[in-house]
Amino acid sequence: MKKEIMKKERTLEQKFQVNFQFKVLFTHNIFDVENTILQKLLSENALNKSKALVVVDSGVKQAHPTLFQAVQDYFKHYGKSIALQGEILEIPGGEVAKNDETLIKSILNKVNQFGIDRHSYVIAIGGGAVLDAVGFAAAIAHRGVRHIRIPTTVLSQNDSGIGVKNGINTYGKKNFTGCFASPYAVINDSTFLSTLDDRDWRAGIAEAIKVALIKDADFFEWIETMVDALANRDVEAMDELIYRCADLHMQHIRSSGDAFEQGSSRPLDFGHWAAHKLEQLSSFSLRHGEAVAIGIALDSTYSQLKGHLDQSSLSRIMSLMIKLGFDLYHPQLSEQVIQGLEEFREHLGGQLTIMLLDGIGHGFEVHEMDKEMVLEAMNYAKQYSAQKLEV
Ligand code: NAD
After folding, report:
1. What CATH code is carried by the domain that includes residue 138?
2. I want to staple 96 with a disulfide (CB 3.0 to 4.6 A). Which of 87, 92, 202, 271 is the partner?
3. What is the DSSP letter of 54?
4. Is the C-beta atom of 167 inside 6 A of ligand 1?
5. What is the dihedral of CA 184, 171, 263, 94, to 10 degrees?
């Protein structure tokens, strides 16, 4: 009898869904005590006082010297309902935050020290790199504590901070160690943007151009009409760009059917295969958005050389990015970047899938890239950049 039971092949099937939902709130002066957004968010699901650990990007602290005091005063003012746990933790801003694994441990140490549980909060204030790293630490502490992102760059407000991906760079590869985890909420405070240097102001616009090119021709046209305002740091124009770009990214995540990227396709990563490799080859001296602009120029040119995109559309794309001040070429844009194709494939698994353009506002996917033509596209970007820079 015992033998017969062991012989049988049996299967149990498991299938369930988990719903994720979060809000992206747009505001100004988040730590002004008159602004109740954060206090309400922290106390909305609380039986007792809500505990929060706050982690801040060092670049933000430097640019906003009164921020720490303002955060402390805010928590003190609403002390009946919310409690700041310990000192505010400052971590280095920029890619350093993702290249140093020990920072994850330092955040976990604070979660442990202050008893941050799944009903408490880890709040990250900073650029995309700091948010990626803190989001990862929050996701693995107790298998996930509530995480509120307060993005402080254009790119993190319109793209990286409003998505579901967290991670750090390991083995010399971008985002090798990470996870998919939804934030509890995101608060975009445009007051932070005024202190960005010109490179970071501009870099985030690349992600808006990217999403416009693959999904929304009207948005691309709008960016064209607003190019001078955006180049001259008009805050209202930037607020609108961020709102529309964030909306398109969020629509994609909720309706693509693959929010956690289990397939081989990553449509929002138009221009990113070369960008990720370039960031690495430039030892991260290129900002992510700057590398994306070069990647967009490369894949748009490749689309044109392959006969999918007409010349006038390519000229519009290149000229928009030049007017905004992007370089469309970098000395590291060479044969070595082509290795990025395999690394891009490996990161997702399965078949290589690259987004190209067959019109402004419309992307489509291919599964192989002609390496000679990629080199030709690189050469075109080099010549185009040189001509424009001379003008
Ligand atoms: P960043 O985080 O590298 O920040 C750039 C610099 O700006 C840093 O020195 C930082 O200290 C400083 N800074 C931040 N806010 C500031 C402010 N308000 N005033 C003055 N200085 C400020 O740059 P980023 O473009 O925000 O983020 C890039 C990162 O985002 C990359 O690591 C990229 O891989 C990641 N990313 C993640 C996703 C995702 O889905 N998770 C998507 C796109 C990009």
Report:
1. 3.40.50.1970
2. 92
3. E
4. no
5. 40
Question: Which atom in ligand 1 lies closest to the alpha carbon of residue 130?
Answer: 2
Q: Answer yes or no: do 170 and 111 share one domain.
A: yes
- Name the pairing type of β-strands 165-170 and 173-180: antiparallel
Q: Are 129 and 98 in contact (CB under 8 A)?
A: yes
CB 299, CB 337: distance < 8 Å: no
Confidence class of residue 279 from pLDDT cuts 50, 70 and 90?
very high
What's the CA-to-centroid distance between 285 and ligand 1, angstroms? Answer: 13
Q: Which of 150, 162, 200, 250 to mutate to test the pocket of ligand 1 (most atoms within 8 A of CB)?
A: 200
Tell me, in angstroms, the distance from the centre of ligand 1 to residue 95's CA.
8
- Categorize the per-residue pLDDT at 389 as very low, low, confident or very high, splitting at 50, 70 and 90: very low
User: What range does the domain containing 143 cover?
Assistant: 23-195
- Tokens read off for 272: 């990113």
Determine if ligand 1 sits within 6 Å of the CB of residue 266. no
Give the pLDDT mean for 287-315: 97
93 Cβ inside 6 Å of ligand 1: yes
Nearest atom in ligand 1 to 165's CA = 41
